[in-house]
UniProtKB/TrEMBL annotation:
Membrane topology value: Multi-pass membrane protein
Organism: Macrosiphum euphorbiae
UniProt-recorded name of the protein: Odorant receptor
KW Cell membrane (keyword) present: yes
One annotated GO biological process: signal transduction
GO molecular function: odorant binding; olfactory receptor activity
Entry's family note: Belongs to the insect chemoreceptor superfamily. Heteromeric odorant receptor channel (TC 1.A.69) family.
Cellular localization per UniProt: Cell membrane
Length: 414
């Protein structure tokens, strides 16, 4: 994979290099004492995530009487676990990811007659979408990082065996077995510990999600390019206009397009093997987070928090990117499925009626091959990742909030 010219790639290579994702998967990354510095950094991030999850679990014991904090800790455990899993999974499968990065090149398809403008548009969409998610996830990271300085006078009452200690509000609100005087006096040191956890979460989320989004856009538009070439196969200058004179040329051009399609299918299968387990966890975790965060916004507002209070703003800033990300993920996989399914329609739409029997047989075999290729990302034997999945999550979220609203409304009426 030659990446000297970023303009030749659909993925946002500059962003991948800035986040370190590129060097994490690259075999030519800087090494010291035989170790890839970026993989060592990834290992540190994963260990920090494990530490955070452990602290959140241990701290939850002291918040059994505080429903808001208990739910907040559960939400953070899910989010940090998933972010750590992403970094671990990429580091573990870096070689496979690198070997499939060549499909993101604008010149990956071997047929020189493809419409390159389609792939250039894909690059523009990839850059725009990844920048959008950098902004969204960065806003979440910043909101959770700076929130303690907007609630200086807020303290959390933590019950120990013989007393209740008042700890100053922090980013993640770990509970330490120390006195409240020591914690509040040295608050900045404890803040830095929690800040690192938040920043590492943000980095892992941005690095992985922007990469997956770029890859999904790449796959969809590479397939679209092949489909467009199928449709216009016999309309190009110098191609078939007279069956008797140009049948061999038609067969040759069709074989080139079939070869491009098969190469893409092979790459998609390999990349799906990496994406599938993480996507399964992601959709489950993100669906849970959206429902939980919407629930917490409702409960906090019902309990007297203003809509512009720091706790609610943090939740709103967090739930919005999660909803947008879930929608974009489901939309991109739906688009890939549609592009794959459009191959046969594209073949049928080409000017095949005037072609020879041999050409028609090859066309028919290609269409049968496409029908047999069940190339869709699944999270179960029957469930595929598509917009219907997003709609079901949002419907469930709406149903839960509606039930809660009615329940609390009936309570107030009584």
């Amino acid at each position: 994979m030659n990446v000297n010219d970023d303009q030749n790639y659909i993925v946002n290579l500059k962003l991948m290099k800035i986040t370190g994702f590129y060097h994490l998967i690259s075999p030519g990354a800087p090494k010291y004492f035989g170790f890839n510095i970026y993989k060592v950094t990834a290992a540190i991030e994963v260990m920090t995530g494990v530490f955070s999850i452990t602290m959140l679990f241990l701290s939850s014991y002291y918040y059994l009487d505080n429903t808001n904090e208990l739910m907040s800790h559960f939400m953070l455990v899910v989010a940090i676990f998933f972010s750590s899993l992403k970094i671990f999974w990429v580091s573990r499968n870096s070689e496979t990811i690198w070997n499939n990065m060549d499909m993101t090149c604008i010149h990956f398809l071997s047929n020189t007659g493809h419409n390159k403008e389609i792939l250039k548009n894909a690059r523009a969409k990839s850059i725009l979408t990844t920048i959008l998610f950098v902004i969204l996830w960065s806003s979440v990271t910043v909101a959770w990082s700076i929130s303690p300085f907007f609630v200086k006078d807020v303290y959390l009452n933590v019950k120990f065996k013989d007393e209740t200690r008042r700890f100053r509000y922090n980013s993640l609100n770990y509970v330490y077995p120390i006195s409240e005087e020591f914690y509040n006096e040295h608050f900045l040191y404890f803040y830095v510990v929690e800040l690192l956890s938040v920043v590492f979460w943000g980095h892992g989320t941005v690095a992985y999600d922007t990469f997956v989004i770029s890859i999904c856009i790449t796959i969809a538009f590479q397939l679209k390019t092949i489909a467009v070439s199928y449709i216009s196969l016999n309309d190009r200058k110098g191609d078939i206009k007279n069956l008797k004179d140009n049948d061999l040329e038609a067969m040759f051009n069709l074989k080139l397009l079939i070869q491009d399609q098969q190469n893409m299918f092979k790459k998609i299968k390999e990349i799906y093997k990496i994406f599938e387990p993480v996507t399964f966890v992601q959709l489950a975790a993100q669906s849970m987070l959206i429902i939980l965060q919407a629930y917490m916004i409702f409960i906090n507002h019902y309990n007297g928090f203003s809509l512009i209070s720091v706790p609610i703003i943090k939740l709103v800033v967090t739930v919005a990117p999660n909803i947008i990300h879930l929608f974009i993920t489901c939309y991109l996989y739906t688009n890939i499925n549609d592009q794959k399914d459009s191959m046969n329609f594209a073949l049928y739409s080409s000017d095949w009626t005037a072609m020879s029997i041999n050409y028609k047989k090859m066309l028919l075999f290609t269409m049968r091959m496409n029908d047999a290729e069940k190339l869709k990302l699944k999270i179960s034997l029957r469930k595929i990742v598509n917009l219907e999945m997003f709609a079901s999550v949002m419907h469930l979220t709406y149903s839960i909030i509606s039930v809660l609203a009615k329940s609390y409304g009936n309570t107030n009426t009584k």
